[in-house]
Amino acid sequence: MSTKTAIVTGGNSGLGFATAKKLCDNGIITYIIGRSKEKTEEACAEIGANAIPVLYDLNDIAGIPAMIEKIAKNNPIDILVNNAGINLKKEFLEVTDEDFLSVIHTNLLSVFAVSREVVKTMKENKGGSIVNISSMASQYGIPKVIAYSASKGAIESMTRAMAVELAPFGIRVNCIAPGFIKTKMSSTALDNDPERKNKVLSRTPMGFLGEPSDIADAVFYFALNESKYTTGTVLPVDGGNSIGF
Length: 245
Hints:
The protein is built from 8 helices and 7 strands, in the order E-H-E-H-E-H-E-H-E-H-E-H-H-H-E. The protein has helices at residues 14-25, 37-47, 64-74, 97-124, 146-166, 184-191, 194-202, 212-223, and strands at residues 5-9, 29-34, 51-55, 79-82, 128-133, 171-178, 234-237.
């Protein structure tokens, strides 16, 4: 496989870190975009030489074109993984306009802006693969995450629209909807709430939480030639949670 170049947003922890590591371990030069200098540089040091830190706050929409142009100047971008995102857990009536807009800004607008700029370079190079990270919150209703759910539902719709429009240029766009994945954050939350943990596991046919590597493996499939005839899809990686009863 010739050397490819990837961008992973939010790649310094959790699912993004596992994804970046999977790509780098397979010889793909991976730019990890993160806000925290310490976390991003530590993640890249842990992953190895193929990981390159990019310190950037994706909420700065205006600066995204210059940031992507700087990366693309060094290497053509073959793969984009839009992983960065934030959540907000609040009762529906307590969510302010500012709260809602903040989540939409980070989870949706930045994904659009990064994708638009990366597509400019992919179009010049006659191909590429974009993988968006959605959520089970887009698959069914979950209380107290209205803004997050709205943003992830929009990501899935945007995935399909992008796939259709960009297919003539050899650019594929797919989406992964993770279920309950065992990260440090989710493990702490579920371990402190046995009732919620039992509910999660009882509606997951496979009966256990996923690993970050499960998401990384799915991204890897979409990123490379093994999925060359696949675009516009949303793949739940959730142990059957979204169809469990």
